[in-house]
Structures are given as C-alpha cells and as structure tokens.
Amino acid sequence: MVKGAGGEYYKNLTPEIAELIGIILGDGCISPSGHNEVAITGDLEEEQEYYNNHVVPLFNRTIAIPLLRKEIKPRAYPSVGVYGIYVFNKKLIKYLTVTMKLNIKGSVNEIPMEIMKIQKPEIWKALLRGLFDTDGSVYFDKIRGINKRPKIKFSTASRNLLKQVIDLGNRLGFHFYVNKPYKGKRDKNYNYAIELQRKTEIQRWFREIGFNNSKHRTKYLFWKLFGFYIPRSTIKQRKELINSILLRNLRPQGL
Known about the structure:
This protein is 45% helix and 19% strand. It is an alpha+beta fold. The strands form two sheets. A four-stranded antiparallel sheet has the order 1-2-4-3. A four-stranded antiparallel sheet has the order 5-6-8-7.
C-alpha cells in the first residue's frame, strides 16, 4: 500500500500498517529539514530481539521494499544508547508526512484523524499494540513486599495522543486510570500517563491485543509461571528462568 494520500490512503488500512503506525508514533522520529532523517529506535540492550524479529521486517515489508525498493538493516548505535534504523530519504519523509499524515512532534504527536474514524476493532487493537509495545510498560506493584500485582502503563508527552489512546481503549471495553501529569527537572514537556489496573482487563489485554515486544511479554509470562516478578531483571534472565520451568514440565516423570 503505497498510493493515495490521507483519507484515500486509509480506506484500505490493514492491521499490519496500523501496528506500524503505532510503532512510529511511539519510537519514531521524522526530521524533514536538514538530512531528511527518519529514525525508529528502541533500547540498545532490551529491544534488539523486538527490532530484529518484528519492527524492521514489518517496516521493510510494508514501506521500505514497496516504496524504496530495498531492505533496511537494523544496527546498534552505542553512542546514543539505541538500536534500530536510521533512514535518510526525502521520498520516505514525504510518504510518512503527506501520504500517511504522520505528525511526530513530541507534545503534539497524534494519531491521524482518518484512522480514528475507522470503525474496525482489529485496526484499533493493532494500533494500540504498536503504541504499547513502544511507549508502554508492564510493571508489578508490591503486595506484602513482593512484586506480584501486574499493571500495564502507557506514557507520552502528547496530551492529544493520550486522549486518543483512552478513546480506543474505551471502545474495546478497557478502563484506564489516568495519572496526574508530571514534569521532571530535565523534561521540556509534561508527561501524561494511564494505567490498566484491573486484573481481568490485563489478562484480556494479553489475550486480545498482546505484545510483540518480548521485553513486555516475558515479564507477564514470568509472572504467570512464578506468581511474582523480579525487578530490574533483564530479558535474557527472564527467558532463561522461563525456559528452565517449561523444560522441567516437559521432562517425563521419574527421570
């Protein structure tokens, strides 16, 4: 899908494109002036798997190959602590800003209205998945000193984007707790955040929307298997412990 613009472009929007839009809104940066730079990057240590196995193949499949006739390779950028892709291409800038109408400007970041008008739950879910994979988090409150109460959080510098995410979640029957906006000493803008706190809704979120980012998915699976979570554990540590339990359960009795 590389033709049309605005409303025409979104008439045949697929869940794949909707999820990619969520990813770009969360982890993307579009700089039309100067070097015509498009960047989509995540955490250097914890999100390489997500970028290698999902984000970059999705970007190549839906945009890079049809539009630019080439594949983009992800790489590490240790100097800025990120992993992902940087593309310097005027044609890509025009495609994202004019055809797709993406506005990536921090505090005014928002979902194109053409998407908000679409009445298809599968589109809402895919878009939310992309947003929560990138700007969301899974964490666990303490109960009697143990981190065992799961919550899903989404935070952004854009008040408009937050309102849109709440709207999409409400359409799907999810109820968010809205945190008080805060501004750190080094922050230019206020940070707006919402949380999913009801256990039944968190379980439904993982069933119906889910996460493609294994950084989040392994936290929830770890909690499901062990009944608690280990703060500051790495994705590698969680996967090793999860796999040890799964392999033990597969081992025949008596061995």
